[in-house]
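A brief tutorial aside. Many learners find it easier to grasp structure tokens once they have seen a single protein encoded end to end. The record that follows does exactly this for Probable membrane transporter protein. Read the sequence first, then the structure, and try to relate runs of similar tokens to stretches of the chain.
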Amino acid sequence: MRSLLLLALVGLGAQLVDGSLGMAYGVTSTTLLLAIGTNPAAASATVHLAEIGTTLVSGAAHWRFGNVDWKVVAKIGIPGAIGAFAGATFLSQLSTETAAPLMSLILLALGVYVLVRFTVAGLPKNNLGKPLRKRFLTPLGLVAGFVDSTGGGGWGPVGTPAILASGRLEPRKTIGSIDTSEFLVAVAASLGFIVGIGSQGVNYSWALALLIGGMIAAPIAAWLVRHIPPRVLGSLVGGLIVLTNVRTLLRSDWVAASGQVAAVTYVVVAALWVSAVVWSVTQYRKNRDEERRVVDEAEELVA
């Protein structure tokens, strides 16, 4: 019962992050399941099963707050579903000894990306009004969907920054559209895992706990996306993902680090993480008024 309650809280926290940043629900949840020894394919399958419900509720909430561009959802969501199904069946064929460190490596790379992206980068260049073309969104969806299934997360970390960097869709609609299209990805990935591993190893109680926490958080996150400083939250979450997956890799057969090496590595990673968060807070306070002005101007242009 205690484990289920903790998982529900993880699902709640992960969805608050995902609904506010447009990323990190799967990465955060899968990282936790791997850390407690879950089979990689089963961990990803469990998280994607929970995401069917959380993304449905999140998409409805974002739609309610006017955060969704349905053309973008269709153009990226369908190829994303194809990539997710392919990634799920691929992961299902790997042995646990190979898949566990491989998945942690993918999650570590995504965590570093999230950490650097939100610590260093400010708001993207404003190119609002220019359409997002299918030739851009289709390959992006395929890659993001494949990474999402094989890494247990990645739809948001791959898709959200790419669309934000184009500057063609305002931040809140980028996040809302990515969250909404993820429903298609979650369904396709779940089907892929059913084909690959059946229902064996999938803990439905864990999936339900993650789902309940995520459903509670989804409407709150859709509202918070207008108010929360993404730079600070991204640094906090990115650092947590990096630290957790560094721990998994150091304990794997690939590395098998000694206790002394592991301790030094943890201290270095933690110091970099704290520095990143401090920097993000400082930069947010410094540029707060300017960033608010840019966002207000962007929303006026598309109103």
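Self-check: Residues 2-302 form one domain. If you spotted this yourself, you are ready for the next section.
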